From TrEMBL:
CDD domains with a match to the protein in the record: INT_ICEBs1_C_like
One GO MF term: DNA binding
Native source organism of the sequence: Leucobacter luti
Protein name: Site-specific recombinase XerD
GO biological process: DNA integration; DNA recombination
């Protein structure tokens, strides 16, 4: 019968020998992570000192092995979180914005409930109960927590700390019924009037509005793009001299904690890079902005602060909300313009064209989250029923 091999990360019997007066050697065979047995030795003034030095050296051998070997089923969840965050940084597959979002969701939503538990104590029932309780407070929080919890535990499975991912067997979260909302034509007229009134109001002190808010609204309505993508438009992205004026959507505005607001050279997804034909009202707004934009640098932002730097999306949202509330209008957000445009294009040209405009790879996302459903059944049904049964009344 074959003799069982020494497990990886362990050592065999320690042997001793005296080298010279006042010098002893302790030696053992250690099985490294690659499966090879290697002789490791240390010396000391005495046999005990040499053995102690050898054991310390063997304990440090883990520094030469992949860091995850320190994870086991008895490791705390907090140790897994630290390694998971480090792994995301090293892998560098996700954008920095996504990594920061995942870290925030992990530390604020998941860690408070799991940090002191060992990995073997985190099972399907515990994960399922946690997500259901969180979903009672907020579906979106539960969804975000589910993502990071699955990723972290998946890493533990891949590194053999646990045998299966309990998140594979939790029950599905039930999305609350929600109907996408879009502006009616009358709402658009009221919004435009409110912005014109605010920009044309008498100014007692401070700088006069430069018209950017109204122009941003027109571009949002004329392109159906995200607010960060509107604010990231550069002069070089505009082609207003062609027969069909266009704008290229090729970036977005990023604001991270501890970093200055800046333009990112790509939008949310690769499919989001696209050229959009501009309606005449959006062209007029852009030309009005260009007349006030003194910079001729092609990389200069179309919309910017007084120093030429990027506007933050939060500030634009806040300003729009304040202006609308003063006019008695509620629920006016930049993203609602996106749903409004998608609904209008869907009604006129179909769901595929609406998805192309929004930069979606899957029209089902467009239909589920951006299109306001028309609940009017085709009136042809009334004619058909009349032809069949009207003569018998």
């Amino acid at each position: 019968m074959a003799r069982p091999r020494t497990p990886i990360g362990t050592f065999g019997k320690i042997s001793h020998r005296k080298i010279s007066k006042g010098h002893c050697e302790a030696r053992a065979r250690y099985r490294d992570w690659d499966g090879k047995l290697r002789a490791v030795q240390c010396t000391g003034a005495t046999q005990a000192a040499a053995e102690l030095a050898l054991k310390r050296k063997l304990a440090e051998r883990s520094l030469f092995q992949p860091g995850f070997v320190s994870l086991s089923a008895d490791s705390k969840f907090s140790a897994l979180v630290d390694y998971w965050l480090e792994d995301m940084e090293v892998e560098d597959r996700l954008s920095r914005t996504t990594r920061l979002l995942y870290e925030r969701n992990m530390r604020t939503l998941v860690a408070p409930a799991f940090s002191e538990l060992t990995l073997r104590e985190i099972g399907v029932a515990r994960c399922d109960y946690f997500l259901k309780q969180l979903a009672k407070q907020s579906y979106n929080r539960a969804r975000q927590a589910r993502v990071v919890l699955r990723l972290a535990l998946g890493l533990a499975v891949r590194h053999e700390a646990i045998t299966r991912n309990p998140m594979d067997h939790v029950s599905r979260l039930r999305r609350p019924a929600r109907t996408p909302d879009a502006f009616e034509d009358s709402d658009i007229a009221l919004i435009r009037e409110a912005v014109r009134a605010w920009e044309g109001r008498p100014i007692v002190a401070g700088p006069r509005p430069d018209g950017q808010l109204g122009q941003v609204v027109e571009v949002l309505l004329g392109t159906s793009v995200r607010i960060g993508e509107v604010l990231a438009i550069r002069i070089r992205d505009l082609d207003l001299r062609s027969t069909i004026p266009t704008v290229k959507i090729a970036g977005t505005i990023i604001s991270r904690k501890g970093e200055p607001t800046h333009r990112q050279d790509h939008p949310k997804t690769s499919r989001s890079v696209r050229k959009i034909a501009l309606p005449a009202f959006a062209v007029r707004a852009i030309k009005a902005r260009l007349r006030k934009r003194l910079s001729i640098d092609p990389d200069a932002l179309l919309f910017c602060n007084r120093g030429g730097g990027a506007l933050t999306t939060n500030n634009v949202r806040r300003r729009l909300r304040d202006v609308m509330e003063k006019a008695g209008l509620t629920g006016v957000t930049p993203h609602r313009f996106r749903r409004t445009g998608a609904t209008a294009i869907n009604n006129a040209g179909g769901i595929d064209l609406a998805a192309e405009l929004l930069g979606h790879t899957d029209p089902r996302i467009t239909a589920q989250h951006y299109i306001v459903r028309d609940d009017l059944v085709n009136p042809a049904t009334a004619r058909m029923l009349e032809e069949r049964y009207g003569g018998t009344a």
